[in-house]
Design a protein that fits this description.
This protein has about 475 residues and is α/β, with parallel strands linked by helices. It has two domains: about 10-65 and about 325-470, Aspartate Aminotransferase, domain 1 (Alpha-Beta Complex), CATH 3.90.1150.10; about 70-320, Type I PLP-dependent aspartate aminotransferase-like (Major domain) (Aspartate Aminotransferase, domain 2). The chain is built from 16 helices and twelve strands. Strands 1-7-6-5-4 form a five-stranded mixed sheet, with helices on both faces. It has a three-stranded antiparallel sheet with strand order 8-10-9. Helix 5 links the parallel strand 2 (about 130) and strand 3. Helix 3 (about 90-100) packs parallel to helix 11 (about 310-320) and helix 8 crosses helix 9. The longest helix has 20 residues, at about 325-345.
Length: about 475
Amino acid sequence: MSERPTTAGQQHGRRSWAEPWKIKMVEPLSMTTREQREAALEGAGYNTFLLRSEDVYIDLLTDSGTSAMSDRQWAGMMLGDESYAGSRNFYALERAVQDHYGYLHVIPTHQGRGAEHLLSRTTIKPGQFVPGNMYFTTTRLHQELAGATFVDVIIDEAHDPTDMHPFKGNVDLDKLQALFDRVGPEKVAYVSLAGTVNMAGGQPVSMANARAVYALAREHGVKVYLDATRMVENALFIQEREEGYADHTIAQILREFCGYTDGGWISAKKDSLVNIGGWLAVNDDALFEELRNQVVIFEGLHTYGGLAGRDMQAMAIGIAESVQEDHVRARVGQVRYLGELLEAWDVPMVLPIGGHAIFLDARRFYPHLPQDAFPAQTLAAELYLDSGIRSMERGIASAGRDPKTGDHNRPKLELTRLTIPRRVYTQAHMDVVAESVKAVFDARESARGLEMVYEPKYLRFFQARFAPLA
């Protein structure tokens, strides 16, 4: 299929499109009753992370490790070289990263947060600052545990879910310069740049902005490291929206973008279409030597980094598949299909529609609930009760607490994320999801909100428990 897939608002008078894959194996899904879901949700403390997967109908909790692997990836699993040292699968992965992302030195890790941990330990000195285009939960925690303070330098439009800026993931260069002026470049560990910014609603960064950030950082002698976890989707947005890139391939755009950074890391459980794995890659020889030594302590030898050989082989194949034009367009097209259905019903969400998920705007969904009543968590619970669809909170619970004051961090965005796994669900599943969201939206005035009754010390949204407010 060479044409770009049409989306829900474009289908009238045109031929339909279908997913660019066919199904070889199925996993049966089971429906539950409302009573069963009420019991399951109460047992999970109204936290969708604590639900059993067997109690979930359509699982939109995350796109991390939930994609369907291809026949070629499954065949690659049979070529696993499980040697402790020097596995040939590592060298296949190394070549794939070098070819498609352009970085010189590659270190495998068990998943993305393993790479975040290694980068933070080796590049941050206590008391330094890390500017970034909006925080991500695990990234910021590793930076803070290493002694840094995260500083948000994303453009203001990113905090407004209704703003239609085409690249809401962009870094505000004035904010970045102001940090250099305020603390001095020597106090900035590195610039943390993320593609398709998750917490902003899956919003992309433009090529021009990446180029400008890199130039400004180099001027001050500061490195730029890229969270490339969803950069393939970011590349599609550049192809569609940025002047001069319509005739570039996804692979070409990805390689150029990475060229404006000094290294990067990835949770391969997203773009690379595998169930486990990640990597950290840098161009600096001395830093690589330190990272290669550190990975032995925390992950495993530098030629496996906590992964089986078969997983590295599947990842290498997945990297090549991830940049195929039809795959990327259909992947983002499915997200758009769901988003345009909801947009037609005036359901409040982050616009423009992002690359990997629909982010429902819980503030506008439940204007009668204060943020301390966890409106995004409430919305995730109500969606599950309605249909068995599992989503996740991206609001005050995810934001955690200020380590200095102990008070909640209070983000401007209070979002509930419907995350679409790659190559897993069909257009019909998206119809079911849309109808459930519409039903919950129609009943929005009855929502009571939640209170947190158990809070772990770190990354509380994973394991916190809630109870309905009276």
